[in-house]
Amino acid sequence: MLHRDVAIAGVYITPQGRTPTGSPAQVALAAIDGALADAGLERTDIDGLAVDWPGPGGVAGECASWGRVLNIPLSWTGDAWLDSAGMRGVSAAASAIASGLCEVAVVGGGPVVLKQSADGATVGSLMGREFADPWGAYVSPQFALVAQRHMYEFGTTSEQLALVAATIRNNGHRNPEAVMYGKGPYTVADVLASRLVATPFHLLDLCIVATGGAATVLTTAERARDLRHPPVGLAGAGWDLNGPTYANPPLYREVGRIGESAIRRAFDMAGLGVGDVDVFSLYDPNSFEVIRQFEILGLCGEGEGGPFAEELSFAPGGRYPVNPEGGSLSCAWNGIQQMTIKVIEAVRQLRGTCGDHQVPGAEVAVASNVGSGSRHYEFGVLVRS
């Protein structure tokens, strides 16, 4: 497997919160420098970069604009939307390193400007989607359409969704790095008592919105062995895309199983299966998307994700621990770098550095990004090297 020659050597998350800690460029730079320091490398070691340039100056979104700021020559950059975040960015950078295009690559960045409605309440509207914007179809209702159909088809209940939300939120309640640290604990009743936002989602079924940055450093496995931390290898990865993001209302029959083929490809690359996984760092923009992923991962059959959640196999101490740091529901959802945070949590778990929320003896972790409502899904299998 080509990616076995590549390792994640450095990770860093900037402080997350409602108030920015600097300009987007300053936060992105803090993420870059933090990840390099974690790896024991310098800016001059970088020859690959997938970090969107936020301006001012340069070309907005073009990674190569960082070359002048960092004063380094670059031999590879990301060049597409989301190349700079999460499993898509990490797997693209790993491929570049494995094929010899560069040796040390940074993937990540700072906050993006989140477009909101006039009252500041909804994120993801006003994206220029002609068949979505006129109807107020921002991100949460898009995912809600898929959840509603699943509930109709299979009998999934609001109580099961609320159980997922309460469990992951309580993970964040105990994590000092989470935005919602100390704000719980939460019960199923608390989730169901919170106001409806987009049926079937109550307020506490939905991720929080924060701002912040994150970054990872990748290099060759050989070089990583001489750096600060034991390397974490990318054993397998896969993408699954179904049309343009948020352009049309998602239909369960089209996107209900999105990600299934990406997961299969990633496990096949790794020579592993879901039964080998110790930690699940799953995308959780809402409680239902976690239930859906239980099913496409093969932890249970289609339509059985709700009852599976009731077994609490995904709670701390359970067989399949999910988002022990609190996920996007409690730790942070910050635009696109919440995808990188998923990768970072998996890396930290494999390093054994997660403190009170460490999963004992973790050797295999998975990280996922995006999902049904957005029509694309990225997945990776990470291993302790």
Walkthrough of the structure:
The structure is a single chain. The protein is α/β, with parallel strands linked by helices and 385 residues long. Helices cover 33% and strands 16% of the residues. Helix 5 (158-173) packs across helix 10 (287-296). It is globular and about 55 Å long. The two termini are 14 Å apart.
Number of helices: 13
Estimate nothing, just give the exact number of structural domains.
1
Uncertain residue ranges? none
**How much helical structure, as a percent, in the residues?**
25-40%
Tell me the major beta sheet: 9 strands, mixed
**Would you tell me the structural class of the helices and strands?**
alpha/beta
CATH superfamily: Thiolase/Chalcone synthase
Features:
385 residues; alpha/beta; Peroxisomal Thiolase, Chain A, domain 1; two-stranded antiparallel sheet; globular
What are the SSEs and their pairings?
Elements: E1 6-13, H1 24-39, E2 48-51, H2 66-70, E3 76-77, H3 86-98, E4 104-109, H4 139-154, H5 158-173, H6 188-193, E5 196-198, E6 201-202, E7 214-220, H7 221-224, E8 232-241, H8 252-255, H9 260-270, E9 279-281, H10 287-296, H11 305-310, H12 327-331, H13 337-351, E10 364-369, E11 376-384
Parallel strand pairs: 2-3, 2-4, 9-10
Antiparallel strand pairs: 1-7, 1-8, 4-7, 5-6, 8-11, 10-11
Helix pairs in contact: 5-10
